[in-house]
Amino acid sequence: MAATIKDIARETGLSLATISKYLNGGVLREKNRAAIERAIEKLDYHVNEYARGLKSNRSRTVGVVIPELSNLFVTQIISVVEGVLQEQGYSVVICDCRTDEERECRAVRFLLDKRVDGIINMPVCADGRHLRPAVERGIPILLLDRPLDALGGVASCVLLNNENAARMATRRLLELGHRRIGILVGPKDIYTSRMRLKGYRAALEEYGVTPAEELIAYGDYTLEGGHRQICRLLEEAEGMTAAFVTNYEMTLGTLIALNERGVRIPQELSLIGFDNMDLSRVARPPLTIVSQPLEEIGLQAARLMLERFSGERTAPVTVALSASLQEGKSTRRRRT
């Protein structure tokens, strides 16, 4: 039979109120805390979280809805979030919606049925309709990477300053004398894609270069999409001397395509990629990379959610973090 709180009280000689205070994170005298912990270990006591949830109307569970579990950017951030939340006694339920809006809606309904205390979401659905049932129930929502204006400012958000990141990378290529610069962005309706394209255009305009539509390739943030779109640019964008690829999977697809075609980097094409420093070190030559602060994004997301749970923060907030440009050897000055 499983040990109960009454068993711990008998073992330690302490009151049920003292044991309960310990289990709920209260501050106790050191000798009482140590006695309770010894009893818990001896009796192999485990908190019945389901029963606790029924009593407190809290499940100590956070739901996470992501577009693709195979996306390295997503998994690295969620790994950090999960670690922080688990340290604070929360379990995490992860739902992969496979970049499908209907799956995303079903995932949110599933999490609400499981009585999660909060939802962290990197949204696919741009109008936010999938999250409205959570909003109506007053469930705290934390958005990753993509804000949703349609929710009316009820959700906090942690994201990269995407426009500045793209402007920084494009500006670096412009400084090296490149003017025919291709860009691989994501789908037109995705926030990150729009902002990165905006930064690219802004940098070109700073240098008096008119953005050419034939140099803009819309991918789908996948390896296959990167492979397909860089091939199209190589075939159709005459005079392209440099390219900026705006996520990790498409960067990898681009490298594969360039290797297959025998395009030399940076002799024939200067290249700046995105997201993954390990890829930068593995590639030959080492890539120049726009590096996102993935750990900080995860830490900030977990912090904001915990602050909502504790009541420390009630109003939603948007945290925009900065990327850095890690120089490799995949770019060089354009020869005239």
Explain what this protein looks like in three dimensions:
It is a single chain. The protein is of the alpha/beta class. It has 3 domains: 5-47, 434 Repressor (Amino-terminal Domain) (Orthogonal Bundle), CATH 1.10.260; 59-160 and 294-323, Response regulator (Rossmann fold), CATH 3.40.50; 162-291, Rossmann fold. Helices cover 46% and strands 16% of the residues. It is built from 13 helices and 12 strands. The strands form 2 sheets. A 6-stranded parallel β-sheet has the order 2-1-3-4-5-11, with helices on both faces. The chain has a 6-stranded mixed β-sheet with strand order 7-6-8-9-10-12, with helices on both faces. Helix 1 (5-12) crosses helix 3 (30-43) and helix 10 (223-236) crosses helix 11. It is elongated and about 85 Å long. The mean pLDDT is 90.
User: CATH homologous superfamily of the largest domain - what is it?
Assistant: Response regulator
Q: Report the sheet-strand fraction.
A: 15-25%
Assigned CATH class of the largest domain = Alpha Beta
The CATH level-2 architecture of the largest domain is identified as 3-Layer(aba) Sandwich
Main sheet: strand order: 2-1-3-4-5-11
